[in-house]
Amino acid sequence: MPDGVTIDTDGDGIPDWWMTQYFGHSTGLASDNSLAPDSAAGDGISNLQKYLTGQNPLIWDNLHFVGCEPLSDGQFSLSVFGQVGQNYTLLGSTDLVNWTPVLSFTCTNAPMSVVDPGAESHGWQFYRIAQ
């Protein structure tokens, strides 16, 4: 605003200019998931969190692991929260410098379980996911 005052008509912590920029109206509405606690992109990050961190609330951005467990047969299972329909590659490393593809997969549900079939051949391993 020209006077340096940020207007937040509904008092939800998100200024009207930001709401208008992304949703086309100045206050949050339940009908389009634009309320502050809603996740318009469906990624579990609230619109308020996206405003505070400078992210676009309409873009999905929340790829992460939600759990892991060793299996009795020596394999290792990881639960991945990814975007359904998106292709990912599970990468493994024993030194955090050199990363090797473990498996490629398409996310069919979130979260989804993926298994490192060669986990027993490593004493330990770090994992990450790439698109």
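^ that was protein a. below is b, sequence first then the tokens
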Amino acid sequence: MQKNNSIVIVVVIIVLGIVGYFGYKNLYTRPSVPQAAIVTSNFKTYTSTIAGYSMKYPEDYKLLENQSYGVDGVMNNNPNTTTLISPTLENLKTNMQIGIHYESGVGNLSEQAVAKKIGTTITGKQYSIGGKNGYMFADTPIGSSGSTILYVEAGNKTFTITVESMGAGYTTGLQKYVDPIFSTFHVTK
């Protein structure tokens, strides 16, 4: 009888260990851009030799350097920024703007420090883009209709990537348009 109890206890410990391991692994696995089923063969390639990155984007998107549109539709100067503007997106009846801003000499920030820097109080999630780790703050209340912000460190540079759209959230529609672009983002220096 005592031998049977010992076997049951050992089996329970093993099962709890396996469940705990996979729970921990899922909790701390960094999400990244899904690579499967993303077709980018007809995308254009953009390389910023100054910022040190390259990416691909759909050929019908508009690319701006050092400029972006404000919520009022006015073009603004935005140094150290590349902006992609989509056409009206299928099923969303709106377009989106992706701004990629880079800075030198800023780095090693905690998730809380990044949240403070970008002006949000929501919790970020660890995220990986182009093999570089950072944080994603999805669907923040920042901006007139909210935005999703990625913050990535690469060497002595940081990239703050902002995804904005009037009336469409990242997790409720924009992600399927953004992920193919993010899957091609690579730091080149």
